[in-house]
Amino acid sequence: MTTHSLANIEAAAHVSGKSTYVDDLPVMEGTLWVKVFDARVAHGHIRRLDITAAAQMDGVVKIFTHHDIPGENQIGGIIPDEPLLAAEEVHFQGQPIALVAAETEEQAAAALEKIVVEMDPLPVITDPREAFRNGQLLSASRTFSKGDTATAFASCAHVFEGQAESGGQEHLYLETQGAYAVPTEHDSVRIFSSTQGPTAVQRTVARVLGVSMNRVEVDVARLGGGFGGKEDQASSWGAFVALVAYVLKRPAKCIPHRMEDMRMTGKRNPYSSDFRIGLDADFRIVAYEATFYQNGGAAADLSPAILERTLFHAANSYAIPHVQVTAHSCKTNLPPNTAFRGFGGPQGKFVMEAAIDCAARQLGVPAALIQEKNLLSDGYEFHYGQIAAGAEARNCWQALEKKHPCKSVLSEIETFNTAHRWKKKGAAWMPICFGISFTNTMMNHARALVHVYSDGSVGVSTGAVEMGQGVNMKMMQVAARIFGISLQRIKLETTNTTRVANTSPSAASATADLNGKALSDACFQIRSRLETIARSALNASENAAISLQDEQVWLEGKATDLSWTALIQQAFVQRVNLSAKGHYATPQIHFDKTTGKGHPFAYHVYGTALTVCTVDCLRGTYSIDLVEVVHDYGNSINPGIDQGQCEGGIVQGIGWMTMEEVAYNADGRLLSNALSTYKIPDVYAVPQTLLIHALETEGAELAIFKSKAVGEPPLMYGIGAFFALRNAVLAFHPQSSITYSAPMTPEKVLTGLYNKG
Ligand code: MTE
Ligand code: HPA
Ligand code: MOS
User: Fold this and answer.
1) Given 18, 218, 620, 669, which residue has the most CB atoms within 10 angstroms?
2) Candidates 341, 437, 466, 504: which one to mutate for ligand 3, based on the most atoms within 8 Å of Cβ?
């Protein structure tokens, strides 16, 4: 197939505005608008909440507080520690306290202003280490270990230690959070939600309403981006509208404005970490220890699971005999932080890279030398017990080395830096290794429902949510390939809990693998029924090889004149079941949480990136000149989509590491609360040259059609930008006291260039 024939079928509708999102749904008569009244102090006791004046405002139908919740006032997905509406205390600025349901959005907004709340303030903590010192933890601390670091450090020729900080990141999905609920018969409710996890919304709504899950239907057409921000945090918006619709028996809609969304929702978890790294005389890493202080915010949300993935990926793609890593999920008075592309993996890898950089600086060797020497290969036992198989860490590095030998890159930069007083270049290599599967083994399963209609057209439902990553197109390709028909015959239905139940969120980069394998199970069931019909229609023997290709039935490798549509008609006339439900549960994976050992991942994704940047040493400004990557796509099912995922991930990773600065003041108020104060990469911030080469490989058996997951891993290439910039700063001011503190904003570069050292 040519690349053109694989162009994402949905792209034209996206760019011409035909694709619909929650806010585009035609609004039913009687729909109420819901606005959220949220806390303006980060920690306090609610002394008095007065809604009487607000309730009398024009158009207001009802004001909801926690008293109006028929079921449980609880939305915590992993740990029940988060009320839907604050009852006695508030724990972060932006925490929902009350809901206004009014005839129009303007009336709801006006009523918000009339709600009076009096608070007794309590102490505010925003720093994770301070929270840790006060014993404020969201979940039990975790340690993963292998070997014996204590003894190993004693034998090391070189030991270095330090601290590293990485910041938060605002998801900034183009479509904000939001949901629309419609009351239905039998005391039920249907919710159109912008969620990565339709079942999570369903479960949360059922809990809040005090009804069984079968009374809650959740439907998702697509998202204008999620990036992890809608894996768990879409649930509260679903619950707001469901509550109003269920109690008032009227449709209800809630779409926060951008600033409300930014203020009320959690972001990537910032981390503050300590590291210790020990090397032998040959620069082999012998021992590594790290302690991670995760800034979880005011409720657990997904932070305990994110913390676990930090520990899994703490050693990145390096083979280290002795590892001990510990992580604390610290409770602070910030909005609960949550999943964000990489799910704690980037935070863990950043610290490992800081440790290597720290060692390299003090040893006077390039970091790349230590990185390359320590890359893992097949047979390596990860510190969590899994044995590396199909490891491409060295292959990716070497393929990049062929294009840009490390030595020549560094010597060219040195030449440039010697010749330029006010401009300095820096380079950094960033290898990645990312495990594919939900780290929680029980989440790794999926289902799909396929109908072949009597005219030969096909309807496909899966648990996969399209959020721009192209999973719908990939699902269509799976069905088209198995049925041997054109993509035009296939329609991807919305993701709906009544068609496909008990879904895991579309997350962990595993959506296409899990749902694609469930879908192929369903398609193969139908195809095998069709093969029987084809054999009898063609008077072929029981063992005759039948295949479906180019919309024709093929017999023993030759096209017959039995077409797909004729075959379907015959099957229908013969009363064959043309529908099937498929199921898939990732085989081979297991993990024992008590020992921290097992085989948690179906496979790993590898790659290496080279980043080169130039710093303007007068202004502190910079540009990323080059990012060149060798990436392990496996056998890509859709190279165009996968390359797009790589490019987007890299730019988002660079944004996290360089310009995106989530800032709260000491009172826990979000300062970077709009696009004027929170800078994300635009077209000018994209690397001037961005080249991604596919590593030639077979791919992984447990990946859909051997096409490896691609959603999250490339984000981590962006970490290279931090170290490239740091190297450029140090080329100008070798004694600089610049720390391992991301993001590397122009301000930090400028102070790094001119600090006293
Ligand atoms: N790409 C786009 N365009 N929009 C998104 O919201 N989310 C990312 C990634 N790529 C995202 C995206 C995240 S966080 C994940 S986990 C994966 O896509 C989810 O989809 P997948 O499992 O199909 O890769
Ligand atoms: N990745 C992403 N999302 C998740 C995971 C994970 O490993 N576990 C639970 N939600
Ligand atoms: Mo992605 S952070 O797993 O939604």
Assistant:
1) 218
2) 341
* Contact 225 CB / ligand 1 (< 6 Å): yes
User: pTM higher than 0.85 for the full model?
Assistant: yes
Q: What percent of the chain has pLDDT over 90?
A: 99
Three-state SS at 396:
helix
**pLDDT one-digit tens code per residue, 134-188:** 999 999 999 999 999 999 999 999 999 999 999 999 999 999 999 999 999 999 9
Contact between 107 and 334 under an 8 Å Cβ cutoff? The reply is no
Strands 490-492 and 458-462: parallel
**Quick one: average pLDDT of 711-734?**
98
Active site residue 712: yes
Q: Are 212 and 232 in contact (CB under 8 A)?
A: no
Q: For 664-681, what is the mean pLDDT?
A: 97
User: Which atom of ligand 2 has the smallest separation from the CA of 438?
Assistant: 7
Q: Please list the alpha-helical segments (H only) found in 574-638.
A: none
Contact call for residues 336 and 296 (beta carbons, < 8 A): yes
Please calculate the CA angle 324-330-335 and round it to the nearest 5 degrees.
Answer: 140
Label residue 5 by pLDDT band (50, 70, 90). Answer: low
Give the DSSP H/E element, type plus range, for residue 694: strand 689-694
Position 2 pLDDT exceeds 60: no
For CA atoms 216, 217, 221, 222, the dihedral sign is positive
Q: Is the pLDDT of residue 423 over 80?
A: yes
| C-alpha torsion sign, points 494, 499, 504, 508 | negative
Compute the distance between CA of residue 184 and CA of residue 181 in angstroms, rounded to an integer. Answer: 9
Per-residue pLDDT for 1 more than 70?
Answer: no
Q: For residues 225 and 340, is the Cβ–Cβ distance under 8 A? A: no
Residue with tokens 């380079």: 427
Q: What is the arithmetic mean of pLDDT over 401-414? A: 98
- Whether 713 is in the pocket of ligand 3, judged by its Cβ within 6 Å, is no
Sequence-separated (6 or more) residues with CB below 8 Å from residue 660: 167, 169, 170, 678, 679, 680, 743
- How far is residue 554's CA from residue 527's CA, in Å, rounded to a whole number? 13
Q: Residue 104, Cβ neighbours under 10 Å: how many?
A: 13
- Strand order in 44-50's β-sheet? 89-90, 44-50, 116-121
pLDDT tens for 599-642 read: 999 999 999 999 999 999 999 999 999 999 999 999 999 999 99
Segment 736-741 long-range contacts (CB within 8 Å, at least 24 positions apart): 739/163, 739/165, 740/162, 740/163, 740/164, 740/165, 740/350, 740/354, 740/357, 740/358, 741/164, 741/165
Among 367, 296, 348, CA closest to 164 = 348
Residue where the block lists tokens 């990312």: 434
Residue 495 CA to residue 465 CA, distance in Å, equals 6
Element (H, E) at 312: helix 303-312
649 pLDDT more than 60: yes
| pLDDT of amino acid 153 | 98
Q: Average pLDDT in the 194-220 region?
A: 98
Q: Could you list the beta-strand ranges (E) of 157-304.
A: 158-166, 179-184, 188-193, 216-220, 252-254, 271-279, 285-297
Span from the CA of 508 to the centroid of ligand 1 (angstroms): 8
Instruction: Write out the two tokens for 271.
Output: 């981390």
**Domains of the chain, each with CATH number or no CATH:** 27-122+177-255 (3.90.1170.50), 271-439+593-754 (3.30.365.10), 445-585 (3.30.365.10)
Q: Which two tokens stand for residue 11?
A: 């792209």
Task: Compute how many other C-beta atoms are within 10 angstroms of the C-beta atom of residue 126.
Answer: 20
Q: How far apart are CA 574 and CA 255, in angstroms?
A: 49
Q: Could you say which of 165, 466, 531, 712 is catalytic?
A: 712
Q: How far is residue 256's CA from residue 252's CA, in Å, rounded to a whole number?
A: 13
